[in-house]
Design brief:
5-stranded antiparallel β-sheet
């Protein structure tokens, strides 16, 4: 009898099937549940979460592409050396095709023997998903950044990565993030790591090389190294609302970026970190960095930075919106501020007011004035001062998707699908494309 056996969450990933085909062999003697043969892995398993198809007895349906061969079932006693195993012989690609009627009598315990399905060799035809859906490109990044310091300094862009690391260390020294001291005996020393990233502009070209020193916060212990970690960020719906209000009230939209934002937060806990790779002080290799301010990678860092920025904005007579805590407004909606971690949108109908807020923020934090809003969270923004209209779009992201799934040469149409087509469920053997690739494509839209 065939059926579908539930796959536990710990044995599958997000996009993998939640059930797998199996064949009932009997009932477990030492384990509770059904004794099943897993068709896909050719293993004998035990499970209690099974749904059987009683109309499909007793054979197994042939998979698509299988050769038209006839198979038989052979029952082999356990004394011949074949025991109840959950693994196949290494090097063999075998699956069972039928389970004969002799297994029914074995399951009832007539000879007290366990049935073993006859292994049959699978067809040698190599089945591959269509390449037009970008199977070979899934997870591949054309602008992949190095994963380590040695890889960065040995690449063709080693000079740019070296300059990025120097800028990061300069910012750490200016903000007085740590001080070197003897390692304490009763505290755990956390490690640090360099993270590299290529930042691109609206056209998709690399605009800046960025290096970030992060602490490995995975070694922190709750209650000892940190308490609260939650930090809000502005919703994308709120960003669209801010843009819509700016059009209605004729507000000017500007943007600013906080350089090394997380270094401005104050730490309440005592945290010690190893000296960064490539910048270990000569003669003091045994010393550790006692953190005085927050640093990237710590679990409580986002909350520390949000607390510092929140206090600064409230001192400017800006109030948090009730619908989104990361949107700050003034009376009459004459001035708006939207915050996404270290990216800030400023909106106001008075240019002097915008300059004053930028000046106050620059006094408190190390800021970078990016001028009028043009690119925010991967979305291009075009402001037309003459008509007072604003256009937003993700043309660069769409081009990348088309290139990734090899659809950039396709002809554009107004309606990509016929609205009169009635969709029906396809059979198990009708494969249009790889399910995982299709899910990645739909999830990217």
């Amino acid at each position: 009898m065939q059926g579908l056996c539930n796959v536990p969450k710990v044995e599958r990933r997000k996009l993998e099937p939640k059930a797998r085909k199996c064949v009932l062999l009997g009932y477990g003697e030492q384990k509770k549940g059904y004794r099943l043969f897993d068709i896909s892995s050719a293993k004998v398993i035990h499970s209690r979460d099974v749904v059987f198809n009683e109309s499909s007895m007793p054979g197994i349906e042939k998979e698509p592409g299988e050769s038209e061969e006839k198979f038989i079932t052979v029952s082999i006693p356990e004394e011949h050396g074949i025991a109840d195993s959950t693994e196949c012989t290494e090097g063999e690609d075998l699956i069972p095709e039928t389970v004969g009627a002799e297994n029914d009598s074995c399951n009832r315990g007539e000879d007290n023997q366990e049935p073993i399905p006859a292994p049959v060799r699978r067809s040698s035809r190599n089945i591959q998903p269509p390449d037009r859906y970008g199977f070979s490109l899934i997870g591949v990044d054309d602008e992949q950044a190095p994963m380590s310091v040695s890889e960065a300094l040995s690449s063709c862009d080693k000079q740019k990565w070296k300059e990025a690391m120097e800028r990061e260390m300069k910012s750490l020294y200016l903000n007085d993030v740590w001080e070197l001291m003897e390692p304490p005996e009763d505290r755990k020393i956390i490690k640090s790591k360099w993270k590299f990233r290529k930042k691109v502009d609206t056209s998709g070209t690399v605009s800046r090389y960025k290096a970030r020193l992060v602490a490995q916060g995975c070694s922190q212990k709750s209650g000892l190294d940190y308490e609260e970690t939650f930090s809000p960020v502005v919703c994308f719906e709120s960003i669209r609302s801010v843009i819509s209000i700016s059009v209605q009230k004729n507000l000017q939209l500007h943007q600013m970026d906080v350089t090394t934002a997380f270094l401005h937060g104050e730490l309440a806990e005592e945290i010690n970190m190893k000296q960064p790779e490539g910048y270990i002080e000569s003669g003091n290799e045994h010393l550790v960095c006692r953190l005085k301010k927050s640093i990237y990678g710590l679990k409580q860092v986002p909350r520390c930075w949000n607390h510092a920025l929140d206090n600064c904005l409230k001192k400017m007579n800006l109030k948090q919106s009730l619908s989104d805590p990361c949107v700050y407004i003034s009376s009459g909606l004459e001035f708006l501020v939207a915050v996404y971690v270290d990216d800030i949108i400023l909106g106001g109908n008075n240019g002097l007011r915008i300059k004053e807020v930028k000046k106050e923020l620059s006094k408190k934090f190390e800021m970078k004035d990016l001028g009028k809003l043009h690119h925010f969270l991967g979305v291009a923004v075009n402001q037309d001062q003459k008509t007072g209209s604003i256009w937003i779009g993700q043309a660069s992201y769409i081009r990348k998707l088309l290139q990734k799934f090899k659809m950039s040469d396709c002809k554009p149409v107004k309606s990509p699908a016929n609205p009169g087509v009635k969709l029906t469920s396809s059979g198990d053997g009708d494969y249009v494309c790889d399910e995982k690739i299709y899910r990645v494509l739909i999830g990217s839209l």
